[in-house]
């Protein structure tokens, strides 16, 4: 056993090389690009929650990769790409993702999958659609990819886990019990039966085992061992803080914990092992699906921003609802996850505006509110309290440095810092890796100057 250094028990070592990336809005903040950028000096990238209802688009040269389950770090050669126990995996879809990479000449040798991660089955997708249809006017706008029902089975203690791929007898035993139950549920909802037999399910698991079985392991042990060895570990969230099942705009949320605390339960590490948390904050606000959106722009204004920002979902193709930056949301997210720095994305999309509005508070029933309320009814009545900043006309003189950004753009960033109490560490002004301004270059020991 390693001897205990009692002097170290009073504080977290400054050299602990862990960094987390958390979406600070309703997702689609550009986390994939920021994760890919920071993964350059990481030894492992860990995804800790969500399923293939989230999507990351990453552009590398002439290649565009759309990832839904595989961690963004899979695109960095030599980096471990770890799927943590908090993720729910659609094995069939991940097979197609893997083909996208192998067709581009890449390998999956660095992939690791937690043996405790749950598996999305076809009946989960059917139940997702049937439940959403049954809700009628109070539908939550799910992607119908089976994420919610998969997490339901996890909590109900009747789900399949990735480790089950390695135990064929267990699969047969579970399938014999679960398939009739799920078909009865689908009958109750008036949905289509899953049409799967025990033998067919066992065959699917055997195929998935052949494709991914060699990558399945206890990833909690792996991650903690790497931290002990001083390796650089990057944790990536899949969705935004406002979709957190506890803290988001419930019930218009996802089924997992998307805030910083989800890292611990979703990857099997202790809270004191996380050193820094980068909050990914789009320079304006978007969301997909139903739910309140205080700063939403409608008509031509909303359509213009949607078109200018290319705001269409990676997973669904749905047009995203667009609005001005909401700092009530940003401050809330910073508090929930202990965000230490912002990564501001899509700053270039605001280029050309004469004036830019920023929401600093809400007016609800005549009262000024600066903290994000839990009540959906209050949010529906909320009106944004705006401050107006001067826009900028072009970024033609940008040379890759912070100093070359337009003065008004820097003032915009400074306003965000002062309003949230969180400094800006990274600025993205385009989809390419090269279109990234690293203000501090301090994230990993290899980058310190």
How many helices? The count is 12
Distance between the termini: 36 Å
Low-confidence spans: pLDDT under 50, at least 5 residues? 1-15
The CATH topology of the largest domain corresponds to Adenylosuccinate Synthetase, Chain A, domain 3
C-alpha-based Rg, rounded: 22 Å
CATH class of the largest domain: Alpha Beta
Based on secondary structure, the structural category is alpha/beta
Share of residues in strands: 15-25%
Q: What is the CATH-assigned architecture of the largest domain? A: Alpha-Beta Complex
Query: Strand order of the main beta sheet, please?
Result: 9-7-5-2-10-1-11-15-19-20
Total number of strands: 20
Largest sheet: 10 strands, mixed
Quote the average pLDDT.
Answer: 89
How many domains make up the 3D coordinates?
2
Instruction: Tell me the CATH superfamily of the largest domain.
Output: Adenylosuccinate Synthetase, subunit A, domain 3
Written overview of the protein:
It is a single chain. This protein has 449 residues and is an alpha/beta fold. The protein folds into two domains: 16-113 and 218-447, Adenylosuccinate Synthetase, subunit A, domain 3 (Adenylosuccinate Synthetase, Chain A, domain 3, Alpha-Beta Complex); 118-214, Adenylosuccinate Synthetase, subunit A, domain 2, CATH 1.10.300. Helix content is 31%, strand content 20%. It contains twelve helices and 20 strands. It has helices at 31-38, 91-103, 122-135, 147-155, 168-189, 198-212, 219-228, 261-267, 299-309, 327-337, 376-381, 407-420; strands at 18-23, 44-47, 56-60, 63-67, 80-83, 88-89, 111-114, 118-119, 216-217, 233-240, 276-282, 285-287, 321-323, 325-326, 341-345, 355-364, 367-369, 383-390, 424-428, 436-438. A ten-stranded mixed beta sheet has the order 9-7-5-2-10-1-11-15-19-20, sandwiched between helices. Strands 14, 16, 17 and 18 form a four-stranded mixed beta sheet that branches. Strand 16 (355-364) and strand 17 (367-369) form a beta hairpin. Helix 5 packs across helix 6 (198-212). The model is unreliable at 1-15 (pLDDT under 50).
